[in-house]
From TrEMBL:
The keyword Flavoprotein applies. Residues 9-115 form the Acyl-CoA dehydrogenase/oxidase N-terminal domain. Belongs to the acyl-CoA dehydrogenase family. It comes from Streptomyces coeruleorubidus. This is Acyl-CoA dehydrogenase. SUPFAM superfamilies: Acyl-CoA dehydrogenase C-terminal domain-like, Acyl-CoA dehydrogenase NM domain-like.
Length: 408
């Protein structure tokens, strides 16, 4: 087990500087354009693929870094560049992790390369869990997958919503109900291969922020996939369902809501994205406050402004520490006895929302215009308190973990 450290090693520093260079030279200059266009920034993803940032190899290297700091460091730098573009770059990773975590070796080898494509023909992937009536309450999911034994095929019907890269993805990973009696324990994940009949894009959402990231509904109308597309395989699923049915029969264990109980390990990564956006806005505000003069002196010469900057930086550093701690715990298999993953995501996302609002205030009228990036950063920051579990759901998870009570 790696000791917890608050300092990046030389190799990590090198990677961080390289990512920072890409974020500063390629992502940041493109941010305003793709925000206005509200389209997937394919040329930027392609640049990221060319240098090796958009690839499973890079992602896996950071993911398996024993210090736990690889992913948070990478996320912070990319999202410092721009949240919408960075999400277009790392969004495929959500689906890839779904396959890595639950797939067989053959599924990993077959599907992950098709999720990324290559630098001359980049592809993206989508992870589709949320539905119109099943957001925080994942157990209410309605999309059904029924096994057609005669053909060894699964037939999937339902509507997914809010899917990052939904409809434009080469490979979709779809979560569906296979046993409605078991709540979220009766869910399974399926690969929907490229060009599968019956899968179509529904509404594409026009969003408040992260507008360079594509978010859409995904309609599944009698989608048929081979048995080999069930992640983990049928045998493993049957065993898992049998265990869950047995527990339900014993009546003891309440079938938990997956959105509330899991994701502890992936939440620090979202916290790190929030730290990146917050740091970006803070830096713009600090520079501005030092150069903008009113009443014959820089505005930072007023405690009212300087103290805000002091608070902003303090919150950002505190958020990063919570994120690094939780990420180290996740990689080293430490139990989250106080929901430390949720804590990190809660604090970092609320910090990003607050700090970007303070940055707009410090830039005054300029902060309110699209001439300055803090306006976009403020819109972008709102997403962190919503996806991967809202702030209220994080508080629920933390409170339940601490108290052992069913808090509503
Ligand atoms: C831009 C974007 C990208 C996304 N990408 C993906 C993706 O790639 N794949 C995917 O599957 N999903 C994705 N999502 C979905 C996201 O995870 C959900 O929006 C989120 O889980 C919240 O669900 P909801 O929107 O249905 O809100 P709801 O669950 O309806 O919540 C509405 C409000 O009620 C509160 N609330 C709900 N239940 C409780 C409770 N028990 N106690 C207290 N408060 C409560 C919530 O905190 C929230 O404030 C994305 C969403 C967005 C906006």
């Amino acid at each position: 087990m790696a000791e917890f450290t608050m300092e990046l090693n030389d190799e990590q520093k090198e990677v961080r500087d390289w990512l920072h260079g890409f974020a500063a030279d390629v992502i940041r200059p493109a941010a305003a354009e793709w925000d206005e266009r509200e389209e997937t920034p394919w040329p930027v993803i392609q640049e990221a693929a060319k240098v090796g940032i958009y690839s499973l190899d890079f992602y896996a290297q950071q993911y398996f870094d024993p210090t736990g700091l690889g992913i948070p460091m990478a996320m912070e730098e990319l999202f410092w560049g721009d949240a919408g573009i960075a999400l277009s770059i790392v969004g495929t990773g959500l689906a890839a992790v779904g396959v890595l975590a639950n797939g067989t070796e053959e599924q990993i080898g077959t599907w992950i390369p098709q999720m990324y494509g290559d630098a001359s023909d980049v592809k993206v992937a989508a992870f589709c869990s949320s539905e119109p009536d099943a957001g925080s309450d994942v157990a209410s999911m309605r999309t059904r997958a029924v096994y057609d034994e005669a053909k060894d095929e699964w037939v999937i019907n339902g509507t997914k919503t809010w899917a990052t890269n939904g409809g434009i993805a080469n490979v979709h990973v779809v979560v569906a109900v296979v046993d409605a009696e078991l709540g979220s324990k009766g869910h399974a994940s399926f690969i929907i291969p490229p060009g599968t009949e019956g899968l179509s894009q529904g509404q594409k959402f026009k969003k408040h922020g992260i507008r360079a990231s594509h978010t859409a509904e995904v309609i599944l109308d009698n989608v048929r996939v081979p048995g080999s597309c069930l992640l983990g395989g049928k045998e493993k699923l049957d065993e898992r369902l049998a265990r869950a049915r047995e527990k339900a029969r014993q009546g003891g264990e309440r079938v938990k809501n997956a959105a509330m109980a899991t994701f502890e390990a992936s939440r620090p990564a979202v916290g790190a994205m929030a730290v990146g956006t917050a740091r970006a806005a803070y830096e713009v505000a600090l520079d501005y406050a030092k150069t903008r003069e009113q009443f014959g002196r820089p505005i930072i010469d007023n405690q009212g402004v300087a103290f805000q900057l002091a608070d902003m930086r303090t919150s950002i550093d505190a958020a990063r520490l919570l994120v690094w701690r939780a990420s180290w715990m996740a990689v080293n298999g430490k139990p989250f006895t106080a929901a430390e993953g949720s804590m990190s995501k809660l604090f970092a996302s609320e910090t990003a929302k607050k700090v970007t609002a303070q940055a707009v205030q410090i830039l005054g009228g300029n902060g309110y215009t699209r001439e300055y990036p803090v306006e976009r950063m403020h819109r972008d920051a709102a997403i962190y308190t919503i996806f991967e579990g809202t702030s209220e759901i994080q508080r629920l998870v933390i409170a339940r973990t601490l108290s052992g009570m069913t808090i509503r």
